[in-house]
Specification:
The complex is a heterodimer.
Chain A (H helix, E strand, L loop, with lengths): L1 H6 L4 E6 L3 H10 L8 E6 L7 H9 L4 E6 L10 H18 L7 E5 L5 H18 L13
Parallel strand pairs in A: 1-2, 1-3, 3-4
Helix pairs in contact in A: 2-5
Chain B lengths: L3 E6 L11 H8 L5 E7 L5 H13 L4 E6 L2 H14 L7 E5 L1 H5 L5 H19 L9 E3 L3 E5 L3 H12 L3 E5 L14 E2 L4 E2 H14 L3 E4 L2 E9 L2 E8 L14 H5 L5 E2 L8 E2 L2 E2 L11 E2 L5 H5 L4 H5 L12 E7 L1 E4 L3 E3 L16 E3 H8 L20 E8 L16 H15 L4 E6 L9 H11 L3 E4 L2 E6 L5 E7 L4 E7 L1 E6 L1 E3 L3 H8 L26 E3 L9 H19 L3 E3 L5 E3 L9 H5 L5 E10 L2 E10 L9 H5 L5 E3 L4 H12 L1
Parallel strand pairs in B: 1-2, 1-3, 3-4, 6-7, 6-18, 7-10, 18-29, 20-27, 21-22, 21-27, 22-23
Antiparallel strand pairs in B: 5-30, 8-9, 11-12, 12-17, 13-14, 15-16, 19-28, 24-25, 25-26, 31-34, 32-33
Helix pairs in contact in B: 1-5, 2-3, 5-18, 6-7, 6-15, 12-13
The chains are: A alpha/beta, B alpha/beta.
Bound molecules: flavin-adenine dinucleotide and iron/sulfur cluster (2 copies).
Chain lengths: 146, 662
């Protein structure tokens, strides 16, 4: 079991909005708050820019977990973007769960520019969850695996 | 096919110690489109930028990736460098291998692998970048300052002195803020009013400054250089132009039971009032909740006694709409509520007061006319205990995690002033630490101890128990002598934590300025851009950004003014070209996008379309690029996939996803 765990190196995509969460990740970095290297961040202007297609694409290409981070509700740089994102993701994640991409593999988290600690804690707990769930095999496009 | 250059920065050892930078550069050359890769110690330095310029010109690059610190740090630097060398600045992408990699990972192999993946994602993206041209927007040469405390006043004066129009919006009936409530000020002990009032007068007399008191910002729209703001001027019930400030109305008003906000509720005021004698403007307001005329329809005495005929019960709130190029937030602070700290008996005894209340007690215009006396029985106290850090530096959620910064100094001030005026009064201060960094600060504190014999005890107070004889039993500990202390005091003063004005949340939301977990406004960069909000055109002044004393507040106020002036001095601003665009062939004119756009940037036009040979007129979404802020809401809402965002297009983001999951 432990051997198997060692071999499993999850691919985790984090979409972070430019104004809050990306800055929160920067703060985690400048405060040297570690989290596993499995997490790779993609910068988007706002959480509302995250098209469900991007998340499906990630799973299709073999991602084991996808997390989306935005400004706290009410604090969106563009006023309302994260409200749309929140509703969209609730729907998407329940559909993904239905087709077998467990809820634990997807997450939405609000992280402000001042919450470096929260960013690192969130990533640590998310990665831990993905390790416990193991490899995602449900949505992976077999043609993508070589 | 693009010709891409990749530049890997060592950032001294910041990156190079954890990431094998030459390996990253080597790997870059294996990516599609990459024709040049190199690593260098400091890419952002002049020498680094020269390398970039040389590569752009020699290798005829069409795009570039810099693997370095966060784009929030140096994206602008590298874009400018590219532009100078003849490359469109929007052909530059940053792979953040410092904040998101070398600083948070320890294992070199692992960090290098991650850096390579981040670089690949950036290369994949830049392969799909297209040159973009920023548009231009105009700058309204007028600034808005929200909050008329010392911070707002100073910022307004500095901006106005540079020749720009400034409006101050102050919520209360007068400008002045907390400083107007203080008696003397550390570290020089000058009288607060003596140094503040001239500033208030200067602001109000300044030809470029216009002050809205008893007013609030109600709505903000627009963006840097071109904000439109609705200001609600609350009905004063007194005509500003007619009132001569004689004060007869306040004298004659029979309703005198309203708690005085200025004196922190320690005494009362009339229903028609100016908060304090030096108020600016010196025009009273009617507190409609306390006014008999408004409550019962009877009375109306003030209108009768007013010689100028200035009282106007019919006055209504008025909304003024103004345009501004820059907005400065200076909303200041309040002391925290003490409900959670009942062990100090604040709610049980009138003789337990906050330091701000003590300022009013010591002030000649305060509730006791400056005599130090117990508020319960008016007797002169003989034994006063100060308790430091009430609600500050708190590890649980009763209080605040931060140090309020000013309390150590003002307590030393209070102790000294009391010992100076009443040498027979014993003063004891319970403290956790005495923190006095600042010019002449430690000397000031030592004077309190050495010259004025204030008794400082390192230790915390567990409980204050009101006694039947009216005294207060203070139970504390002396950590240095390791003993419990029981002390009977006549008065207890709580150095209460400060917090941002509760309103600031509303203001921040309106301005889309970020706020931290303690409700202080966040600066664009903690070290390098301390007076700017991450939201362009919004600047921060005073305690709304973090705890500060007056000298620091004034310094920051000046800095915020300089930043605002820098903006106002420009005639035009370049706008972000990363805006949305709809595909004329895919759009079906359904109006979904219009509904989600927070800026009203989307309209519809009938356009001639040639859809695979079929010519017809269709209703098509058109984005006004001057209004579009590039959030991308419309792109995801669009059911036809017709909307896309330049600079963050669907294909670009998917390319990044693919590169990461490869
Ligand atoms: C007990 C005590 C003693 C002190 N003693 C000293 C001292 O001796 N020396 C020293 O250097 N410092 C002292 N200070 C600190 C000093 O008071 C502050 O540094 C200073 O007042 C900060 O000024 P400011 O303008 O940032 O905030 P404030 O003084 O709080 O001013 C903010 C202004 O904004 C207004 N406002 C708030 N919200 C809105 C809104 N939504 N719309 C419009 N207007 C709004 C408020 O009404 C207020 O007028 C002391 C503080 C305390 C609590
Ligand atoms: S990206 Fe779309 S929704 Fe956002 S501001 Fe531009 S047009 Fe409006
Ligand atoms: S949502 Fe899409 S299809 Fe509908 S009007 Fe907007 S761009 Fe056109």
């Amino acid at each position: 079991m432990s051997l198997e765990k060692k071999e499993f190196k999850p691919k985790i995509v984090a979409f972070c909005c430019n104004w809050c969460s990306y800055a929160g990740a920067d703060l985690a970095g400048s405060s040297r708050l570690t989290y596993p290297a499995d997490v790779k961040i993609i910068r988007v202007p706002c959480s509302c820019r995250v098209n469900p297609m991007f998340i499906l694409r990630a799973f299709e290409k073999g991602a084991d977990g996808v997390i989306m981070c935005g400004c706290h509700p009410g604090d969106c740089h563009y006023s309302t973007g994260n409200f749309y994102a929140r509703r969209r993701m609730t729907l998407l994640f329940s559909m993904l769960d239905y087709i077998g991409v467990e809820n634990g593999r997807t997450r939405v988290e609000w992280v402000s520019a001042a919450e470096g600690v929260k960013f690192s804690e969130t990533m640590n707990s998310f990665v831990e969850k993905i390790y416990s769930l193991g490899e995602n095999v449900r949505l992976g496009d077999l043609r993508c695996k070589s | 096919m693009q010709r891409i250059g990749v530049f890997v920065c060592h950032c001294g050892s910041n990156i190079a110690a954890t990431v094998d930078v030459s390996k990253v550069a080597e790997m870059a050359l294996m990516e599609p489109g990459v024709v040049h890769a190199e690593d260098y110690q400091y890419m952002c330095s002049e020498a680094g930028q020269a390398k970039i310029a040389a590569a752009i010109q020699e290798k005829n690059l069409t795009g570039m990736v810099v693997c370095s610190c966060s784009p929030r740090m140096h994206e602008a630097t590298f874009r400018k460098a590219a532009e100078r060398a003849g490359l469109n600045p929007y052909m530059v992408e940053i792979a953040n291998i410092r904040e998101h990699c070398s600083w948070i990972h320890k294992d070199v192999e692992e960090a290098t692998k991650k850096a390579v993946i981040l670089m690949r994602a950036a290369i994949a993206k830049v392969n799909l970048n297209a040159p973009l041209q920023p548009g231009e927007s105009r700058v309204t040469k007028r600034a808005l300052v929200i909050g008329g405390g010392i911070a707002g006043i100073q910022t307004a004066i500095d901006i106005a002195d540079a020749g720009y129009e400034v409006d101050i919006v102050e919520k209360t009936p007068s400008i002045g803020g907390r400083m107007s409530q203080l008696d003397k000020t550390f570290p020089t002990l000058d009288c607060s009013a003596c140094i503040l009032t001239p500033k208030m007068v200067e602001a109000s007399a300044h030809e470029k400054i216009n002050i809205y008191t008893y007013s609030e910002v109600e709505k903000v729209s627009g963006f840097v250089g071109d904000f439109t703001v609705d200001i609600r001027k609350k009905a004063r019930s007194v005509d500003m132009d007619k009132c001569t400030g004689c004060g007869v109305c306040q004298e004659k008003c029979p309703s005198k039971k309203a708690p005085s906000e200025f004196n922190r509720g320690l005494n009362t005021r009339s229903a028609i009032y100016t908060p304090f004698a030096q108020a600016i403007p010196n025009v009273p307001v009617i507190d409609r909740e306390a006014c008999i005329k408004f409550k019962t329809g009877k009375c109306g005495l003030c209108a009768k006694v007013c010689q100028a005929g200035a009282v106007d019960y019919e006055q209504k709130d008025e909304i003024v709409t103004e345009k501004y190029g820059a907005i400065v937030v200076a909303t200041g602070f309040d002391t925290i509520k003490l409900d959670q700290y009942d062990e100090y008996a604040y709610s049980q005894s009138k003789d337990v007061i906050t330091s701000l209340e003590l300022e009013r007690v010591m002030n000649a215009a305060g509730p006791t006319h400056g005599h130090l006396e117990r508020l319960s029985d008016g007797k002169a106290p003989k034994e006063i205990v100060f308790i430091q850090c009430v609600g500050s530096r708190c590890s649980d959620d009763r209080g605040k995690p931060y140090c309020s910064k000013i309390c150590c100094m003002y307590t030393a001030k209070h102790a000294m002033l009391i010992r100076d005026k009443y040498p027979d009064v014993n003063v004891t201060v319970f403290y956790i630490d005495v923190r006095t960094p600042g010019k002449n600060f430690d000397e000031f504190y030592r004077r309190a101890v050495e010259q004025y014999g204030v008794n400082y005890i390192k230790g915390q107070v567990g409980k204050v128990i009101p006694q039947p004889n009216g005294k207060l039993l203070v139970q504390g500990s002396d950590l240095l002598d390791n003993k419990q202390i029981l002390k009977e005091a006549d008065m207890v003063v709580l150095a209460t934590a400060i917090e941002p004005n509760p309103d600031v949340r509303k203001i921040a939301t309106m301005l889309t300025a970020s706020i931290d977990t303690n409700n202080f406004l966040t600066e664009a960069h903690a070290k390098l851009r301390p007076v700017e909000s991450p939201t362009a055109g919004i600047f921060l002044s005073g305690v709304c950004q973090g705890p500060k004393d007056i000298p620091e507040t004034v310094a920051q106020a000046g800095a915020a003014a300089v930043k605002a002036i820098g903006l106002l001095a420009k005639d035009k601003l370049l706008t972000n070209p990363c805006t949305a665009q709809s595909d004329i062939l895919l759009c079906n004119g359904c109006s979904t996008c219009e509904n989600v756009c927070p800026y009203g940037a989307i309209t519809y036009e009938d356009k001639e379309v040639n859809d695979h040979g079929i010519r017809e007129t269709r209703r098509i979404a058109v984005v006004n690029s001057a209004l579009c802020q590039g959030c991308g809401a419309c792109t995801v809402a669009c059911p036809s996939g017709a909307m896309d965002l330049q600079g963050f297009s669907n294909r670009q983001i998917i390319a990044e996803v693919d590169a990461i999951c490869r």
